[in-house]
From TrEMBL:
Signal peptide, first to last residue: none
Name of protein: Large ribosomal subunit protein uL10
Gene3D superfamilies xrefs: 3.30.70.1730, 6.10.250.290
Keyword Ribosomal protein tagged: yes
Organism annotation: Dictyobacter formicarum
Amino acid sequence: MPTQAKAGKIEELTDKLSRASIAILVQTQGLSVKDMNDLRKKMRAAKVEFQIAKNTLLRIATERNKMAAVDKKIFNGQTAVAFGYEDEVAAAKAVTDYISTSKVAVLKSAILGGRSLTPQEIEGISKIKGGKDQAKAEVVGTLQGPLANTYGLLTAPLRDLCYVLQAHSEQLNSGTTAE
C-alpha cells in the first residue's frame, strides 16, 4: 500500500501521462546541479515539463493509464521525464539536442501513444523538419495534389463543352445584331 505522498505522486504522474503527447525518459545520473538547472531551463524554453520520477511510481502511472504496450524494462536506473504536451517533435528535438551536447545524460526511451519508443526512434522524430504542423501540412499537400489533378481531369470535358457553347452563343448573337 503506497503512502499518502506516493499516492499523490502517482496521481500527478498519471495525470501528466494522460495529458502529455509524449513522455521522454532520460537518465541524468552524474549531472551536476548547474547542468541540471541548465537542462531544466532549456526544457522550459521548449515548453517541455521536466521532472525526476521514481521508476515504480512511473510504472504504476502507466498501468493506470492502460498503457499495456509500454515495455516495463525502461523503468530502471535513475529516470527523469520530459513531458511534451503540445508538439512531440519539438519535445524530442529539445531533449535530443541537450543529450547530444551533454556527455553524461543518456536517452533511455519514450512513451508515445501508449507504447514505448527506442532512443533511435526518438532521434528520428526529432529530425522531422518544421515540427508536427509541418509534417501534417506535407501529408495534406501530398494527398491534395493528386486529388486536385483528378478533379481537373474529370471536370475538363464539361468545362470545355461550356466554353464551346458559350463561344457558339456569342457567335450567334453577334451574327444577329450585325444583320
